[in-house]
Design goal:
118 residues, alpha+beta, two-stranded antiparallel ribbon, 1 helix, 7 strands, 32% strand
Amino acid sequence: MEKELNITLPEWVFLDGNSHLGDMLENRVLLQHIQSYSIMELFLVEANPILLNPTIVTKEFSHMNIFGVNENHLLAVHFSLAGAIELDWIINRAIEFYKFFMDWQDASLIIEETSKDN
């Protein structure tokens, strides 16, 4: 009996630069919104400001991680087929998605560390 494959793409995917050529993205965080063909990069803003071409659409945001530390981030849009109003909506959704991802990642680290102790 043949089973039909579900090849539906998710709304969001992280781009991975690992290949036989090495890590082409050098641990950079790139997020793609599939439906709008939007590619965004996320930066953790630490002591030094991030200098980008002024024509690049960006949005700063902060996120309190699960340890109670407030982190500042910057989202930069590399490419999008969306218009300005739709892109603003996509950027806000991307930030929301990324905040949930960061919480999940922090929780995973806690679980991993706890399991090592047991």
